[in-house]
Amino acid sequence: MHDKQKQTMLALVQHNASSAWHRHEMLRSAMNAA
Hints:
By secondary structure, this protein is mostly helical. About 95% of the residues lie in helices and about 0% in strands. The chain has 1 helix and no strands. It has one helix spanning about 1-34. It is rod-shaped.
């Protein structure tokens, strides 16, 4: 059970990191276009 919880936390952290990176890329391209 503990391992399952750890896996879920890891997936959540990775998802948050990738979505933050995606926002950063969108912001960067928006600034480049401006």
